[in-house]
Amino acid sequence: MITIYRSREGVLETVPEIVSGCWINVVDPTSDEIERLVCEGIPQDFLTYPLDLDERSRTEREDDGKMLILLRIPYFQSQMVDVPYITIPLGIILTDQFIVTVCRYPNEIINEFTLGRVRHLSTAKRIRFVLRILLSTANLYLAYLREINRTVESVEDQLQLSMQNREVMELLKYQKSLVYFTTALKSNELLLERLQRAQLFRMYPDDEDLLEDVITENQQAIEMANISSSILTSMMDAFASIISNNLNVVMKFLTSVTILLNVPVIITGFYGMNVDLPLQEFSFAWQIILAICVGLVAITAIYFTRRRWF
User: Fold this and answer.
1) How far is 138 from 130, CA to CA, in rounded Å?
2) pLDDT at residue 272 greater than cutoff 80
3) Annotation: CATH topology of 2-245
4) pLDDT (tens digit, 9 = 90+) per residue, 254-265?
């Protein structure tokens, strides 16, 4: 799908045709749509690279000045899948006349721009537009990392009383997401360093300052992802031991109860034999035997309690 936007007095408008200073948003394009854009002078490789979900962050430049910036952005799938948060490639193509964004899926970063959530947006200022996308990407990483931390804390409360593996498997899903995030953020960091060394963002001091902000936010996201991943790994190891310990406590309790129940069984088993036994001539023998059983059970229970076996 191809949608063409142009800003006018800070308001983003949809236009029917490609014009100078516009923004072309491409989402999961068909072969015909790719051919249309190729006819506008955009290299076909620049359009197909972002559609490969395994592409890494990098930049490419053609001899005629057209440039591709490929970065990894966070993407939320669903809480019901094995990996709720993943990363996908987003391609940003710069030409002399317009800017193009290419992605396989609709994503929250592009939605922020198309829905008018980004203030003072100008599609004609192509360099500033790229920086705003980079900054939104870093901020979205931070937002998703905070959501992951809140979810992990909720699962942690459930784990403290759990004896099953369900909560541990839930944590494993988010640990996978953190691995994806950490890898993508480090790849984006290398991309930003290359952009900082280039002359692309040195035309205007404000753009260079904004790039510094993007790098700072990206580094903060990297540190946050590393900390969250380390904490989650330690937590999973600790709670795996807790689950095993909880199971041992239950088994110890059940074993103690079984021993207590076997005490009267042993005594009454003897009196079930067809031989001469003590107290058999008394009519109230069963009461004496019952009292002995209760006393032995009480003594055993007290002994277990003092040894903390109960």
Assistant:
1) 13
2) no
3) Beta Polymerase; domain 2 (3.30.460)
4) 888 888 888 888
